[in-house]
Specification:
11 helices, four-stranded mixed β-sheet, 313 residues
C-alpha cells in the first residue's frame, strides 16, 4: 500500500513542477501586487496533495507533449462507484492496472517498494523534527506576560510573533510599546496574518514540502511562498498609510530584522527584509483597471494550472 501512495505522490510532484515554474514566472511581473500573487500558491499546494482533478481543453498540460504517459480516470481507480469527469496524470508509466494496482514488471514493484520505504522514513524524520522545533519554540513562549486580549509581551523574542492555531496570540518583544506608532503598525501586520490564517498556511506549507522532500521545486516553492506571504501582508498594511508613515513602517521592518522562527513567527524578521523595504517604499496603489485585470489573471491562471489534460477517446 505504501508503494502505491508513493507512486501517486511522485506523479503529483512531477506535475507540480510545471505549476511552480509557471507561478515563479508570474511573480516576476513587476506591476503585479504580491496580494495577487500570494493566493496563487494555493494552486501549487492543491497539485501537491490532490492526485485527481478535472480535465479541460484549456489545461496547461495539454501542451506538455508526450510527457504524460496516461490519464488515470476516477472510474479506473474506483470502478463502478463514481461518475466524476476527473483524472490523475501518470508520468511514470510503471503500472499496468490500478484496480487492483499492478506493476508492469516485478522489478518495478521492488523498486517502488524500496523507494517508498526510504521516502516515508525521511519524510517522517523531517516532520518529527519540525514538530519538536515547534514544541520547543512554544515552550519558550509559555512565560509571556499577558497585556490585554490576545496580546502578550516576552523577553524571549526579538521580533513580533504570532503563535497558536485555535486562539492565536501576538507576542511582542519587551522593547516594543504597542501604543506607539511602530507598535500599532506591528499589530496591524500581525492581525492581517491572523485574519488570513497565515499561522495555519505556514505549517501546512511545511508539511506538504516535507511529503515532497525529494523535489527541489517544492523547497523553492516554500521559500517563495513565505516571501510572498510577508510582501502581500506589507501591502495590505501600507495601502492605507501616507508616504511618511510608510517610511516609519520600513524603519520598523529594519529594526526587527532578527529572530525569524520557522513555524510560529509570521511577522517581521529576516525574510528578505531588503526586498520588503524596497517594496514598501515603492508601493503604488492598484487602479480600478489594474484590479480588474489582476482578478481576470487570477481566474485564468487558476483554470489553466489546476486542470488536467483533456480526456480523449
Amino acid at each position: 500500500m505504501l508503494d502505491i501512495v508513493f507512486y501517486f505522490i511522485l506523479n503529483m510532484s512531477i506535475a507540480s513542477c510545471f505549476v511552480i515554474v509557471a507561478l515563479l514566472l508570474i511573480r516576476q511581473i513587476r506591476p503585479l501586487p504580491r496580494r495577487v500573487v500570494y493566493p496563487l500558491w494555493a494552486i501549487a499546494f492543491f497539485r501537491l496533495v490532490m492526485p485527481f482533478t478535472l480535465s479541460a481543453s484549456w489545461s496547461l498540460f495539454n501542451f506538455t507533449g508526450g510527457l504524460v504517459k496516461r490519464l488515470i480516470t476516477v472510474e479506473t481507480v474506483v470502478q463502478g462507484t463514481v461518475s466524476i469527469p476527473g483524472s490523475a496524470m501518470n508520468y511514470i508509466g510503471a503500472a499496468d492496472r490500478y484496480e487492483p494496482f499492478e506493476y508492469r514488471t516485478e522489478s518495478l514493484r521492488q523498486v517502488f517498494t524500496t523507494a517508498s520505504v526510504i521516502w516515508a522514513i525521511i519524510a517522517a524524520a523531517i516532520l518529527i523534527s519540525a514538530v519538536i522545533l515547534y514544541i520547543l519554540t512554544r515552550k519558550e513562549l509559555n512565560n509571556a506576560v499577558h497585556i490585554k486580549e490576545n496580546l502578550y509581551r516576552s523577553d524571549m523574542v526579538l521580533s513580533p510573533v504570532l503563535t497558536g492555531l485555535i486562539r492565536p496570540k501576538i507576542i511582542l518583544p519587551a522593547s516594543l510599546d504597542p501604543d506607539s506608532a511602530e507598535g500599532k503598525m506591528v499589530l496591524a501586520h500581525e492581525n492581517i496574518h491572523r485574519r488570513r490564517l497565515d499561522n495555519l498556511w505556514r505549517p501546512l506549507g511545511i508539511i506538504i514540502t516535507c511529503l515532497h522532500w525529494f523535489n527541489p521545486f517544492a523547497w523553492v516553492m516554500l521559500k517563495a511562498f513565505f516571501r510572498d506571504m510577508e510582501l502581500s501582508n506589507d501591502e495590505s498594511v501600507i495601502r492605507k498609510l501616507s508616504a511618511g508613515e510608510r517610511k516609519v513602517y520600513a524603519g520598523t521592518l529594519l529594526r526587527f530584522a532578527e529572530d525569524k522562527r520557522l513555524l510560529v513567527s509570521t511577522a517581521f524578521g529576516r525574510t528578505a527584509v531588503k526586498v520588503r523595504i524596497v517594496n514598501v517604499l515603492n508601493y503604488k496603489k492598484l487602479t480600478l483597471i489594474g484590479a480588474v485585470a489582476s482578478s481576470i489573471l487570477i481566474l485564468i491562471v487558476a483554470a489553466v494550472l489546476i486542470t488536467n489534460p483533456e480526456l480523449r477517446g
